[in-house]
Predict the structure.
Amino acid sequence: MSVPKRFSVFAVLWLLTACSPRLAPGSAAPEGTAFMPRPAGFADRYAREELVILSRHNIRSPLSGPGSVLSRITPHAWFDWSSAPGELSLRGGALEMEMGQFFREWLVGEGFFAKDGIPEEGSVRFYANSIQRTRATARAFAAGMFPMADIDVEQHTPLGTMDSVFNPQVTKLSDGFLAKAYAEIEAMGGPDGPMKAKYALLERVLDIKSSPAARHDTTAFGQFPSSVHFEVGKEPMMTGGLKMACSASDALTLQYYEEPDVVRAGFGHRLTPQEWTAVSSVKDHYQDLLFSVPSVAANVAHPMLQELLAELRTPGRKFAFLCGHDSNIGSVLAALGVEPYDAPGAIETKTPIGGKILLGKYRGRDGRLYADLWLVYASADQLREVSILSPDNPPMALQLHLKGLTPNADGLYPLEDLERRFAEAIGLYETY
């Protein structure tokens, strides 16, 4: 297979890891293993027909470069990144190829794909937002999953621009929508309400009182009240201290993944795993307010919901991989009414970097179609160590549940129930 020059280092990684112990070709992983455990006899009762994945890109560099607010709110030097601002890092590419290899061995072991096979025309689809980190993530996953095939990654807009399917922008605005959205935001405590202790932690880690910004009286994020704004054709916007704190939270979280010395990653502070989770949760709160309150989620996720539902209904499709952002995952799950969850083993407990929503479609022995939802992601330790994924060291897999729907004894929903939930979320958009 020809590998894009950008990923030649990942091709070397693949050659090195291909000799690692893995699932024997043609052998199924035993039910009840650490990865995606199933009730006894599941494989006898159901056959997988399709797997649709909505993925977040893997590890990237911070969105802001030298001279940005990040360099002004701390006296410390940030990690020296291997990529330009906002682009997939070398570690991120290596991790994503490794994830693709794991999915290959898992699905080959299930008999869903032939080992080293070339997918039939139209049976597999890779589609990514037209941003470097999302497109590069999709290419790395495809190289790991289908090493003998030249997989094309769809790109619908020029590189560096947002594809409307992946762009979490507000496309309809009304007084009713605004009233409901602001009420839902206030019900979550508002932008700054629950953040006092987490702001204090961030300020301590950054040593903000000794930063260049402190010379201009910026010593605390709470000095600047935060507010959310909506405008047609743009992503939901935030101003104030939470936006600034989100940039710091994001950069520190990424630095935690990339910097081998965990104390150095925290600018000399010995943070506990719980404190790292608290650092990361600042940006999660920012994302939740902008993209995951129910009314906003149904608005900004509308084109992605339509795309995913169409994939589940595409004849002949076995596998689809759509690569976007945490805002896509968060808004889709909120729009579908997924029960609250915390991702174990992660410091990003809602949309872990490189994390994937898996929508599985199965044919039951009774002839009916069923579906389930999982969140699959590498743990924080797996990200930091770039550890080889295998049946003995699988990625994390958390089954997701839909409010108001009851799965059967095998953890599956009738497919028509899931499709109805998609239709309801899509229809809600029409009420704005």
About this structure: The CA atoms of residues 75 and 210 lie 6 Å apart. The domain at 175-291 is CATH 3.40.50.1240 (Rossmann fold). Confidence is low (pLDDT under 50) at residues 1-32. The beta strands are 46-56, 124-128, 153-154, 227-229, 237-239, 319-324, 356-364, 369-377, 396-400, 413-414.
